[in-house]
Amino acid sequence: MNFWVNVLTAGISNGTALLFATMGELLAERAGVLNLGVEGMMLMGAVTAYGAAAATGDPWLGLLVGMLAGGFLSLLHAFVVISLRADQVVSGLALTFLGTGLALVLGEGLASARGVPTLPTYSIPILDAIPFLGPVLFDNKSVLVFVGYLLIPALWFYIYRTRGGLHLRAVGEYPAAADSLGIDVYALRYFYVFCGGVLAGLAGGAITLSITPGWFSEFTTSGYGWIAIGLVIFAQWNPVRAAIGAYLFGSLRRFTLDMQGVQSVLGIANPFFYDRNLQFFLEMLPYALTIVVLIIGSRAAIRKRLGAPAALGLPYVRGERGML
Amino acid sequence: MTQSLSTHTPPKTRGLRLPFSVKLEPRLQTPKWLPWATTIGSVAIALFVTGLILVYVGGDPIASFRAIYMAAFGNLGVFSDTLVKATPLILTGLSCLLAFRMRLWNIGAEGQFYLGAWGATLIVENVLGKDASVWLFIPLMALSGFFFGAVWGFIPGILKARLNVNEIISTLMLNYIALLFVAYWVFGPWSERGFQLTPTFPRAAWLPRLADYASLFKPFSGLTVHLGFVFAVLACAAVWYLLTHTRFGYEIRLIGDNPNAAQYAGVNIAWMTVMVFMLAGGLAGLGGMSEVAGVVHRLQDRISPGYGFTAIIVAWLAKLNPWAVIPVAILFGGLLIGSREIQPSGLARMLQGILLFTLISSEVLNRYRIKIVRVGK
């Protein structure tokens, strides 16, 4: 029991960073722009947030700087793919290289920074006393965890129930039709790519300022940016499914750690406890499961004949034939 | 009827109004010299921007670039080291190139490289005895490296062909898995006395280096270039021949340029996807074999400083031309060698990112004519 409480508690925290990154990518892809640079934007957000917090002593200011850094990087991608109509895959990869490299350059010496303030944690009175759910969901959580809770229904409502969300989906599904209705396709795409960057920056800042405070060069984000992209496909571009996936993968990270400390599982001797080298196979789990999750997502897409926004990955050129 | 007229009213303009507007007009044909001019231009701009960032973080760009150049191309000895670094880049670059040519995004050359290195080590550790001959070791290691790289390419290939699983994510995830898989073997079954590496290979499993022939020809002494470089150049020739002179290569290019036309022409796209992914994996695997047999002479954790990722840029900078991969890989090998000499450590990766950006941005110049139009009053 205690084992699962620990795993899920950590899962909610880890999952919050993954949640922000996934939601950001989801928004950009809904608008028809694939941004593979999430890992780079997260690392930039992580390093600038941590650095700014270390320099000013204010974690909130740090977080803001991290968000802006992520947003700024994403604008580069937006310019290259929306205005210059370059290939979105290559540009996204370039963004990952650039973000990672720039973060390493800026983070030189940051690893040894001491006394960097972190974001506050809160407990929700009454709710935190509920057995099992209380400690997992409401007890002594980073403020960003609660922001994450609010973000899920808010995004769902925005995408499916508001005019803005309708425009967002239209731009990603059929930009020419959206354009003919007077929706500014280019401006909206810029805007949502920027939102995605800000959220990725927030995810990075959440890691360095709250979840696992500190800067550990490129290992800070441990591939979360890529998992986020996989999760968007698994979630079929639905924010609620994306959130479930994010928390699940967050839990998995802790599960692989805790499994090494348990002598037996359900009465069976735990091989991971007795052979330390098998830990590497445990550590493969998140990555292997990302592939499994992708397979599930792709099968669902084939079966239900829905899935990716129809114009995902395609540049929009007004008045050009053959363009969606 | 009257309602439809309202669509002719000009759209409201909001926000900033510039006195001119920029228009992109598609070019009907691109002059031959233009792609190379824009490539060189984008390299120059990338170096300039990197220099600016270096100044910002308090470095001296001129001195840094000079240090990189001297460390990579300053004399024959260091140039030979650069060629050693270029070898895995050529092979992984070809791996990416082949897949990209068919619009398959193989981001997994890194993992395929690791599996190739593992496959080569498998021969040394578990298949052949310590005193087997060179003529047995080298071909078997190369085959095994190619085979296990191809296995690692088969997975995303079949997932893409059968289940339409996004190959970018699957190849990336397989990179992480390959890294952990190799870590298991070097920490566990193959570990030398608990260290995170295998014992050194027997001499017969080393790819011969130029320095080995220094007794025959004096200037070879100290030159580290090994047989893997010859493999890499041969691989370039093979990929070039495959792409330009065979039906298989024609189908790759056809699918890459127009998948619908390929479908109508009866090309079996699913089968091609699996085959190309396996070939790409095999090439990267050969790179891994050449690295353990030619340079490290043992398997250890993290043998690649990201060759498989740099390979993406190498392939792109070479404009998906197999022969151009060689000079580009040598340039990037030099960058790898040179950037070891200078701080900060992320510089090489940052330069690669900026370069890729300027490169794809410059391609707009090849495809479109840029017109600046004055906006009338």
Helix content of chain B: 55-70%
What is the highest CATH level, the class of chain A? Answer: Mainly Alpha
What class would the helix/strand composition of chain B place it in?
mainly alpha
Instruction: Provide the domain count of chain A.
Output: 1
Average pLDDT of chain A, to the nearest integer?
Answer: 88
- Helical percent range of chain A? 55-70%
Under the CATH scheme, which architecture of chain A would be assigned?
Orthogonal Bundle
Largest interface: A-B, 51 and 49 residues
Low-confidence stretches of chain A: none
Radius of gyration of chain B: 24 Å
Name the shape of chain A in a single word: globular
Number of strand segments of chain A: 4
Q: Mean of the pLDDT scores of chain B?
A: 87
Form type of chain B: globular
In this structure, how is the largest beta sheet of chain A organized? 2 strands, antiparallel
Helix/sheet category of chain A:
mainly alpha
Please count the helical segments of chain B: 14
Low-confidence parts of chain B: 1-13
Task: Name its key features.
heterodimer, A: 324 residues, mainly alpha, ABC transporter involved in vitamin B12 uptake, BtuC, two-stranded antiparallel sheet, 13 helices, 4 strands, 69% helix, B: 377 residues, two-stranded antiparallel ribbon, 66% helix, globular
Notes on the protein architecture:
The complex is a heterodimer of chains A (324) and B (377). By secondary structure, chain A is mainly alpha-helical. Chain A has one domain (2-304): ABC transporter involved in vitamin B12 uptake, BtuC (Orthogonal Bundle). Chain A has 13 helices and four strands. In chain A, the strands form two sheets. Chain A has a two-stranded antiparallel sheet. In chain A, a hairpin with a 2-residue loop joins strand 3 (264-265) and strand 4. The model of chain A has no long low-confidence stretch (mean pLDDT 88). A two-stranded antiparallel sheet of chain B has the order 1-2. Residues 1-13 of chain B have low confidence and may be disordered. Chain B is mainly alpha-helical and 377 residues long. The longest helix of chain B is centred in the middle third of the chain and has 30 residues, at 134-163. Chain B has a domain at 92-318. The chains are: A mainly alpha (324), B mainly alpha (377). At the A-B interface, helix 4, helix 10 and helix 13 of A face helix 7, helix 12 and helix 14 of B.
